[in-house]
Design the sequence.
């Protein structure tokens, strides 16, 4: 499970160090990096990407939203493997989409993790820290324990 927040810099070639505690979940098959839904990147272990791929491929080709989702998932996904230093190479397209120039925040979100630019994460984190709005925002999600 991917948990926590980690601040890492990209090197001049666009490589990003994956937090040590995440690496075992990406080995040996690697992972898929794709465009996220919030101007971020999503990194899915290969088995999770396969599950999503199967679900997306079962969607109707006659549904315009399903076709858009297919394009988003498959045209932006890149298979990556960890190098000996525990880094992954992010394509220029994905770096540009997410606004990644040097600094980034790697955020664990359970079955996958996200990569955010520092500015985008700061804005997202402000929303998350809004204790006044969070109860109403999440009430319909039924988080009973």
Sequence:
């Amino acid at each position: 499970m991917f948990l926590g927040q980690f601040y890492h810099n990209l090197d001049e070639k666009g490589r990003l160090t994956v937090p040590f505690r995440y690496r075992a979940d990406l080995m040996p098959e690697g992972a898929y990096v794709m465009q996220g839904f919030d101007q971020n990147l999503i990194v899915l272990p290969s088995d999770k990407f396969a599950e999503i791929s199967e679900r997306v491929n079962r969607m109707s080709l006659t549904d315009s939203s399903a076709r858009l989702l297919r394009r988003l998932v498959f045209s932006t996904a890149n298979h990556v493997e960890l190098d000996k230093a525990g880094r992954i190479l992010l394509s220029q397209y994905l770096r540009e989409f997410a606004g990644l120039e040097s600094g980034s925040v790697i955020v664990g979100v359970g079955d996958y993790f996200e990569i955010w630019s520092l500015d985008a994460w700061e804005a997202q984190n402000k929303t998350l820290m809004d204790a006044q709005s969070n109860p109403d925002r999440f009430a319909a999600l039924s988080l009973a324990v």
Remarks:
- Strands lie at 5-9, 15-17, 31-35, 41-45, 78-80, 87-89, 103-108, 113-117.
- The chain has six helices and eight strands.
- The chain has one domain: 5-119.
